[in-house]
Design goal:
Blueprint (H helix, E strand, L loop, with lengths): L6 H26 L11 H21 L6 H4 L5 H6 L2 H27 L1 E5 L2 E6 L2 E4 L2 H33 L4
Antiparallel strand pairs: 1-2, 2-3
Helix pairs in contact: 1-2, 1-6, 2-6, 5-6
Length: 173
């Protein structure tokens, strides 16, 4: 059976992507806590692998989705049919989650532009394309948290879209 006709595949993708979305949410909340040790950016590697695994069938489903001649459907793009299959409460959750991810992404941009956090000769620094600035441990920790939040927001967007697509496709509801 092809991936588009097999609800089991869609359920596996939906569940896997949902686990990734939960991990992203936990990492983001953790990165926002002022007294917590910032999560390591290496935690994003398994999320990146998961994103790649669930994104392949998601793109295949989007490409194979039958198009309608109705012009009103075209405005929704390839993801319109995905959201049409979700119940109203799930649509609201997806929109709120995307807004949260967008806010997390935008809130991390100032720290991203300051440079990448590194330890150089035992001192915390920010490396901005070869321009090294020594910073306090607090600034270093804030930069690590912002970089983690930035990466999590990007991966979270892909995982959330994959989860919504697979859940709508599998008639999960």
């Amino acid at each position: 059976m092809s991936a588009t006709k097999d609800p089991t595949t869609a359920r596996i993708v939906a569940a896997s992507a949902a686990i990734g979305v939960v991990c992203v949410a936990i990492g983001m909340v953790w990165s926002l806590l002022p007294t917590a040790t910032p999560p390591s950016e290496t935690l994003l590697v398994p999320l990146g692998v998961l994103t790649a695994l669930v994104w392949v069938p998601t793109l295949i489903w989007a490409v194979r989705e039958p198009r309608q001649a109705d012009v009103s459907v075209w405005r929704q793009g390839p993801w319109g049919p995905v959201f049409d299959r979700l119940p109203h409460g799930a649509r609201i959750f997806v929109v709120v989650a995307f807004v949260f991810l967008a806010l997390a992404f935008v809130s991390a941009i100032p720290a991203i532009f300051r440079g990448n956090p590194e330890i150089l000769n035992g001192h915390p620094v920010l490396n901005n394309h070869g321009f090294i600035a020594q910073v306090s441990l607090q600034d270093y920790a804030e930069s690590v948290a912002a970089h983690t939040r930035f990466g999590s927001a990007v991966l979270g967007g892909f995982l959330l879209l994959a989860c919504a697509s697979a859940a709508g496709r599998s008639r999960f509801w």
